Amino acid sequence: MTKSSPTQPRAVPEPATWDARLARRLVTPLVGTPVTPNHLTSLRLLIGLGGAYYLSLGQFWICTLGALLIALSNFVDHTDGELARISGKSSKIGHFYDLACDALVTVLLFLGLGFYVGVHHPSMIVPAEWLGGIAGIAVALIFYLRMRIESMVGKDGTKQASMAGFETEDVLYLLPLITVVNGMTPFLIAASIGAPLFAAWVALDHQRVMRQAALRRKGSAHAKDTDGKDFQTAR
After folding, report:
1. pTM of the model
2. CATH value at residue 174
């Protein structure tokens, strides 16, 4: 359930990335209004769905519009989290809704790319639609595993690496440019290779976190047994 919030923004640390900083400035006037983070998440979802649909149609200029919508959707994705932080409207349901929308938009993005490339290159050795599906499934697995990791060790365990104010996902801002220069095919091929490799890396990290959690539980149980024996001995 969404918590009530003050009419003034809360003092929270400055975001590490440029787009998140811009997003915070844009949503600051929304503090104390009826607009909630979930509203912005829904807006991000609608923009992303529209972008993925336009990408799938296979027409150059419509595809470019779709790429612009995907880039905009990627930016709007930062607004809900920033509003939640500065307004105190954080909730577990809202966080899960945000993650689900992220996963859905990203999966449909790659499927849309697959259909676009399939229209222009129907004779590829591996059908472009399959490549989009491979990348999409890998991305879905990544989101699922990261959600599991976060449930065990918190958000810090799934924090993306950033450099000079940019994150890995910021490559989506280049999607309109990639579309204009007809770079969708190599981009899709790279995604169909890179996404499964990254999913494998996240799977290994998930196994590491599970082992550490099991060791902590075992150590806690051993400590309780030891305390019980010491107490009995003292008696």
Report:
1. 0.81
2. 1.20.120.1760
